[in-house]
Write a structure and sequence with these properties.
Strand content: 25-35%
Number of helices: 1
Bound molecules: zinc ion
């Protein structure tokens, strides 16, 4: 059913907070659907958001290739030219102001 050149990645928006996200199936053996936030993280933010169950992904793209999430493992280059993103989490609901 997939079109030629399709990578399974699709731009979409979070149904809850409308943030731009990228959903992609990662991994061949233990396939995992990742919902990545498309806002690139600074090196400081990458350290701040890192948790055991929250991975940092490298958002690779080329002129003729679709965007693709790659796991940033131990040997990931420090001077990587691609933006790094993390799993999307909806921000806390806007507090209602009663003034
Ligand atoms: Zn990278
Ligand atoms: Zn959301």
């Amino acid at each position: 059913m997939s079109r030629p050149g399709s990578t399974g990645a699709a731009d979409s928006r979070c149904p809850r907070c409308r943030a731009p996200i990228l959903r992609q199936l990662v991994g061949r053996v233990a396939a995992l659907t990742v919902t990545a936030d498309l806002t690139p993280l600074s090196p400081v933010q990458q350290v701040e958001v890192r948790e055991p169950n929250r991975l940092i992904w490298c958002l690779r793209s080329g002129d003729h290739t679709a965007r693709r999430l790659t796991w940033t493992g131990r040997d990931h280059p420090e001077q990587c030219p691609y933006p790094h993103v993390t799993e999307h989490r909806c921000p806390p609901a806007e507090p209602t102001t009663l003034f």
